[in-house]
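Tokenise the fold.
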Amino acid sequence: MRKIYNILLILTAVFSYGQVNLIVETENNTRDFRENDEVIVNILLEVAGKDMVQQTPLRMFDTSKFDVIANGSDQNTFIDSKTGFRVNRTLYQYVLRPKRTGKIKVGSASVIINEKLYYTEPFDIFIVESDKKIIVDKNFDDVYLNVELGESEVYKNQPTVAVLRAYSKNFDNFRKVRNIRFPNQDNINIRQISHTKSEIEPAGNMASQILAVFLIYPKEAGRLELAPVSANLSSDKHRIVSNKVKLRVKSLPKNSPADYKNAVGKFDVNLTYTGEKVEVEKPVNVSVKISGEGNFGNLNLPKIKESPDYSVFSPKIIRNTTSSKAGVKGDVIANYVIVPKKAGPITIITENFSYFDPAANEYVDLGVKSLVLDAFTHNEILAARSPLERVNEYTNTVLETVDNPVIKTTGLKVKEKKALNWSAFWINLGVLFLAFLGFLLFRGYKRRNREKKSTVQPLNLGSVAETENQIRAGQKTDINDYFAFMTTLKDSGDYERFFGTMEELDQEVQKQYEVNSVADLRVSLEKNSGQQVAEEYRSLQHQIQIERYAPVHTPEYINDLLDNAVNLYTQISK
């Protein structure tokens, strides 16, 4: 509702000089619908001025040709503290379902302010028959799904945020929605951002709840129609579907670089390699890293070009990306193995990479990335070493292959450097001497220990405080015991003891964090584990309270609730 309000607020900016503005529009200004589609109509009333008096309530258009699925309103008031100028904005929203096909007129809305009548012009919408009707069980016909788009007009491969929301008059129906399935279409890619249910939002005689938030990446230009999102109610037999949304996909500008492929967003490319010296016929790891924000899901990475100076093998791709309402951010790394074929300088070059920046509405050409490696033959590398570096190499070989039980020597390998490191040389000699001396002492100790008879040491009872701490540590409860007991109670159907045990589990975790309430534990989790973990804990407690006092408990939902509790408490338990 808030997003729709902001959009309509922008539309009314051109009428900001008037004192009363009244607008009636369908969502995204759509006029064509299918028989099973839900028609969302927004009515915005803006009254500016402290002397403006609304004498009649807003009279809505005739809804007799529709079934009213849901309705709600949102009101905001802005007051200039200096001039006292007041602006009242009220947004009404109706979710309607047409009763018949064909042309249907959406009538006028009117209001009287300061004895003047303000009204909107009627307009027509067109309803066509659906290809296939999906019949839902009548016991659940008061649960509806609706998909709302953040932006209905984007470029090809540019994401738009979609929110899946459920509407129902009965709060108990929201927990029955499960097994959400997104459409599988060749012309779009879908990436889910969140599947955590929001809190239930009452609005008039109908409540709503956000079920999922996801990103839609269109793969072709033109007008696209997204297939409905489907879900089940309590079991696979009862199925509901959402509305079909339409998306206008703009074609990219035609002045693209010659080698442009499909990157849309904002990116950066880096070419790096690991290692100190490059040897001919020995593999070298070279990485091509693309970082930024954009369509990482179907992005064509720039490859390393082939050359007679080296051999290149297929890369290993590593993806480190995260999804949010702003898009997909992170990086993708292609790790190549390069084998030099000749000595001397070798230049490694990538393909040209360019992308389209929708914010700036222009193409950005990053060009090619190059990296120069100096390759040496094996004899050149050996000849470049000094006598002391060879001693270090021999010492490293001994430290790597000979170990003793007193000192761990394999971790003392000397790293090769261009200049001689005298301190490392003397340290290695000292370590070898100490290792030999320690080995002799260890052998003597073991021989004397075998000759001695074992004696029983007296038990040190310590102070009373130390003894009490040991007893408390021995009495610490394992949370896995709670999980096993709650599983038994769930299987036996003893839900009263099930929720009582879950409350004891939460109190045990509160003791671990030295707090005494759910609110204090949430604050502690936010400080120690982050806001996301704290939000998951709040959501779990909200679900527990709803299910605990529900008149009827569903085994499937109890099982999901237990799984969520096990995952969360395992994560936060100390």
